[in-house]
User: Which sequence fits this backbone?
């Protein structure tokens, strides 16, 4: 639902951009698990790309052994795979902690659109 806001009464705001940015970040991270879900998706992406990197490293070892450095293939396989697994694990763990935090706050699972009072006001 959109609404039109009147112009500011007291001129320009004295609230600095840095504080506004911090408030915005707190608003996104404090009331939402979306950033945690994005990290989980990023973990899946990194893991998928690491598998592609592993295939590339192994293909270079098999088809172009003359240009690969000794130990490079194994190093790349281990680093890429563990990096992808760690990113995915952090995303899953973060999502779990985010849900636990949301439950601990005790907020209702609904949003009140309108308050109707029966006492005449």
Assistant:
């Amino acid at each position: 639902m959109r609404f039109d806001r009147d112009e500011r009464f007291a001129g320009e705001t004295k609230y600095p951009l840095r504080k506004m940015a911090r408030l915005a970040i707190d608003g996104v991270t404090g009331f939402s698990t979306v950033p945690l879900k994005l990290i989980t998706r990023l973990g899946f992406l990194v893991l998928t790309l690491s598998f592609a990197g592993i295939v590339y490293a192994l293909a270079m070892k098999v088809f172009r052994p003359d240009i690969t450095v000794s130990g490079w293939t194994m190093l790349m396989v281990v680093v890429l795979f563990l990096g992808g697994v760690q990113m995915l694990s952090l995303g899953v763990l973060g999502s779990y902690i985010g849900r636990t935090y949301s439950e601990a706050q005790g907020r209702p699972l609904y949003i009140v659109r309108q308050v109707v009072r029966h006492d005449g006001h």
